[in-house]
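Protocol step 4 of 6: structure prediction from sequence.
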Amino acid sequence: MSLLYVKNLYSGYGKIRVLFNVNVEVVEGSITAIIGPNGAGKTTLLNSIYGLADVYSGEVIFDKRNIVGLKPHQISALGIGYVPQSNNVFSSLTVYENLRLASTGLSKTEFVKKVNEVLEIFPKLKELLDRRAGTLSGGERRMLAIALALMKKPRLLLLDEITTDLAPIMVKRVLEKVVELKKMGITILLVEQYAHRALEIADRVYLLASGEIRFAGEPQELLSKKELLEIYLGVQKSFGEGSSQLS
């Protein structure tokens, strides 16, 4: 069953048009990846879903309801969490204070329960509760950012470039956590510039370029489209055929 359906979406910022007739379907319980070159409109797609961009026409259907026109806090209350690429934690606050702030609206009992659940997912954060978020490593900050989104118990989690600038070992750990979240029943819509990272864990992939969808299908199907890979991702060979890799 589709949890999210972006239908004939045209959006951008003010007079700047970014997305043109974009259609994306996210099946409940899946990981859906949006890949594409820099400037393709990937982040704008997430911003359009979350009420942070201007939607000129089209629909964003979440759980059978059109959410276009709602404010981000209203969209969050419906069950959508968003982890932006930057400015996703409060650097001057401790990890615990970040979690407390993210739990606005929860009772004390609900807060304690949710914090324990989140710390089970990210046990490293247990050791860092009294540390200021600004002193955390890149990987620790990404995990905290995801934890903050999880405090509101989302059904759908929007993740924007969460592996950017991370060391390879941390990339692996963060993506393993994304797969773990899927197994827990959270649906994931993942934007990723580094295509090979997304294709390794995604159930379905969309290639976005110049504001338009150029491909929609399963990762293995995209990997067989050598011309698409070369034109839009700068790849000379299919992933796994030689030294060239998706970037």
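Step 5 (inspection) to follow. The domain at 2-233 is CATH 3.40.50.300 (Rossmann fold).
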